[in-house]
Amino acid sequence: MSTLKPIRRLVAGNNAAGQSCVLIDGTAPNAHPSSMSAGRGHTDLWVWNDSPMALSGTSDDSLLKYRFPGEPRGGHLRVVQSVGRPADYDPAQDPEVVPHHPPKLRPGTTGTWDRGGNSLYTSSMHKTQTVDYGMMLNGNRELRLDEGTVLMQPGDIVIQVGAWHEWAYPTDAQMAFDMIGADFPDGVGTAIGNDRPLAPKPAPPGIRLNRRIVTIDRPSDGRSVIVSDGPCPDVLLDPARPGFASQRMWVTERCPAPIVYETLHLPRTLEPGNGGTTFRVDILPPDAGWLGKAGEREVREYFARAGSPGACAWHAGARHPYVQKTGTFDYCVVLEGEAVLLLDEQEVMFRAGEVALLKGVRHAWSNRSQARAVIAVSSHDGRP
Question: For the domain that residue 81 is a member of, what is the CATH number?
């Protein structure tokens, strides 16, 4: 029996009539408890070996066999679970302690390098040939770099652009990772180019933005550093929905993904091409505050500002004004509150910590509660 907390995961696709429907809904089956301690390990939610990602089919690709961290044009979505360090922890009595050592390729992996330093309550200092979208679900984790340490709290987002890092576990915690194959043209994965990181901006009145952290390895010496840390600097509002905010976190414009300082200067879109991704965190205010006030014009204007006018699937009989359909495989992770996923003939309630995988489906998210809902959405370029 697994000692990991179960992760609820839904997969939605299109049936033979082209209607969006639920394909799989339940506990994600591919859990991997760690041999080091009970309650520690990870659960794979999806694996892919090429990009663009396939939108058809009904198989559960979380069960695909792969080598960590994945193929150069692939990757995986997983939830990692850690156990908090007890107050009386004594490193001298820890049988799992490994001293720090020079970098070496981790045996049995592709594109994973290790510098040791791990213990029962700390990961090794390591780097992978990936760009990682990290989403803190619950508890706290300490992200340690060569230069700088960050305490991550629920709702925080980290973009790890091929950087050296280690994790320490002050509390029990769960964190989701979308790990995307990256390009290391210099062989070691240090930053390329001189794109200026966007500076955080004050939050719009009445809106609490999510924290965005970006890390990368400096080209001069290969040491990992914090590029940016603060409220998301790229926020799209919707006048028809007071309290709504779409926070764009990162973009990969191709696959394998480039190792660069910033990507938010690229055009905004809901539909990345060329095997790329776009990652955003949406804040949904309660529907009761605006429903009935947003018509076709307001909805189409929103999708135009989002850079994807063709994504708008509004029609007079739609179950929700902001129904959309894109040629993308969307990973939707509920970070806060609760929201209802509306498909063509079904609706499903989601709560914080639950995950929906949407394979090019017509859908909308409805917030029927009295508090805000926050959903992280990583959209991957798809193919039929």
Answer: 2.60.120.10
